[in-house]
## 1
Amino acid sequence: MIRTIAAAAVVYALVASGAEAGPTFSKDVAPILYNNCTNCHRTGEIGPMSLLTYADARPWARSIATRVSNGTMPPWHADPAHGEYLNDRRLSASDKETILQWVSDGAPEGDPKDLPPQPKYAEGWMIGQPDVVLAMQEDYPVPAAGTLEYKFFEVPTNFTEDKFIQGVEVRPGTRAVVHHVIVYMRSPRPQPRLTAFSFGPGMNKSPTPEQIKAKRDLNDRPAPRALGGWLGGFAPGQGVRVYQPGTALRVPAGSVLIMSMHYTANGKETTDRTSVGLVFAKEPPRREVVVVPLQNENFTLKAGVADTRVDAEMTLQQDVTLWSALPHTHVRGKRWEIATVSPDGEAKTILGVPKYDFNWQTDYVFREPLRLAKGTKLRTSAWYDNSAANKSNPDPTSDVTWGDQTWEEMQFTAFTFTVNDTQTTTSDKGKQ
């Protein structure tokens, strides 16, 4: 009896001191959410619910545990066997354990005094407060139904001098109908052509003059004659790009932004006015960034075939540094690999995405930028499932080729480079 009373006293003392207490929202879980989740999971952002407060998070506790346990949240798809990335969103093992134990214990709030200060966000922006916001000059009407060709909108920057950009965020005005956006920058003066990159033969299809005219005649906002160099983009899961210190993207004085908008009707008439936020570099960069697209438009995915591979390749004509890679397919894409092949023939996978998810497209930023020698080949490989087993497949009975619309397909990667030991400039040509 005395032994039982003594044991109970020890347990009481431990509980009273908090030594045996499990994790609480205020003390243990909120810091994890603030560091990893609330950039998206707050009012007005892409996350379907806010997780900033206990009242916000508590109703979703079981769902949070499920997503954390199966690895679908935070979303991350790169194979760790092939590299490390600055923007890796995965939770640590201890953070996962804390969240799962908290939910298992009934998701207690704990003492509100233990809450750390909430992170401060610039209202309406994930990138922080932009130095300038450039928006479409109209509220474009998006119909309730029908297929829309890509729409192109010109937005003057009115920059009187070249600007170096440290960060870019493309923000849809009406997220429900904006499938993706590419923003180009067209300089008023000719820009030197990029010579550091050459592309494999037969990958790009040039439309005939008749096809170009037909597209223009059917489109109330057709593509201009020239697009310019790549500035930024928005796709599901990816709308922000921040460049490392000492690097930045140059926007020439007087440039006009070209917003290429892919709208998807959702059954309700609405309007959209998408905007771009830019954060200027505090000083001219030591190295100027260029974004170079690599794509293969010449392929056919046969109906019913579950595993078709499509490659694209470029060869480096100068020494370069590779900072990031953003692979892109549509709903039949299931896997990606990006490899380098050295001048002496040694191949190395630098990015593997074994379970590509169209809903979460990512610009994978290498933790250690890759210095690649002249003569190196960059090879991208995408695998597609055009069978009925692919639940996202809109029509497994049809062959599929390159096309703009989601039921068509793409094999596209945007690479971010700096060219070593030379002055780099953006190209006046670019397309997807």
Note: The mean pLDDT is 88.
## 2
Amino acid sequence: MSDEVWTVYLSGEIHSDWRDRIAQGVAEANLPVELTAPVTDHDKSDNCGAEILGEDADAFWRDHKAAKINAIRTRTLLESADVVVVRFGDKYRQWNAAFDAGYAAALGRPIITLHDPALIHPLKEVNSAAYASAETPEQVVSLLAYVIEGQL
């Protein structure tokens, strides 16, 4: 058993329970893991600039402020992560997730992608930068258990 606590950043889509399933699996396996993530409340993430720094008449600048504020959290947590899990769903284009994967790769962080098999082709470049590609949150937990504890 490792004495080190691993920080695992969970990036990607916010419309399913994948983060909860990973958290439950990590807890059940008693893994020494701290899970971090971006703000997953869509409205808060979109509106943080206007709420904190004031409204803008132009939608570009409104989004720009929110993106910059969210980047403070995202970049800080990505830079401190030991492993980055990037989830791509099939309903929405996750440009943020793709950016996070690229940023993590540039930082040299190990990446695990998580997506349905139907997305293998569109994500071929992202998957080529990943150390592993999983189809289920449970596979991610198994990957973490093996990497951290040597458990199969």
Note: The chain is about 50% helix and 15% strand.
## 3
Amino acid sequence: MSLTVYLAGQIHDDWRGRLIEQASERGVDVNFVCPQDDHPLSDAIGVNVLGEESKARWKDELASQFNNLRTRVLMQKSDVVVAQFGEEYRQWNAAMDAGIAIALDKPLILVRDPKLHHALKEISQRAQVTVDHPDQVLDALEYILK
């Protein structure tokens, strides 16, 4: 058995790459999918498809439409969603993705530093599992596959 896992949340560092590499090293049979992590492409996709906008707000609105489409399609095809929260960046994308996973009734693994427990307690209660670091995500995925 193999799993498709959507890696939700911010795209500003390489947490996904590290997790994917660790999964490969451990031999975990998982196909990872994720938001568009080419940040300039993600920000420009709306105007790339529909044409230039003179105001930044409308450029953002158009990009959001295409990014939301991508998120929904890939999440619906996923067996599990992992939402990683960190402190360095505002975590709107992670919160939105976790909410979408919950609304789609997708199993959710929440990754957050214990210092963020209080801020994320409601999402944590809706997730199937809350872990403190990404290595524990791989432990959970291995357990599913055993």
Note: Residues 33-77 form one domain.
## 4
Amino acid sequence: MKCDNALDVVYQTEETVSLWTRLNLAFHIIFCGSCAARLQTYEAARSLLRTNFFPPSPDFTDTIMSRIYREAADAETEDERAFEIGGFSTKGWIIAGLVMLVSLATVFFGKDFVSVARDQGSSFLLPLGLITGMAITGYGALFIGSHLKELSERFKL
């Protein structure tokens, strides 16, 4: 028996292999060290797969769900305290918005801006104006969305 045939026989199920082929395989394995090593590795892998190779995973669902509920309760109390403690205050948002507005407005007075605007013309100014408008609009939307409750209470809406 050749080594290729021996390995094919090893990988077949025991029911499909005749007694004569099994004896031939046993005789081949006695004299071929490489096939004996492959057979030993194959049998070790099969025995690992027959037994419970992967241990059962621990059940963390109760622990995780209790932490989620606890964090949700803590978040609700933190949201209520955010206006009292000063987490993201309206004054901080307005100062950051003014800094952003001033920095976007002063970009037009830069030395590099003048040379690029002269070379590119309106094909440069149109995208810059769109991006400036989107940045200011997005910041305003975030400010109003995050302070809607406080603004409605302040302006009695």
Note: The mean pLDDT is 78.
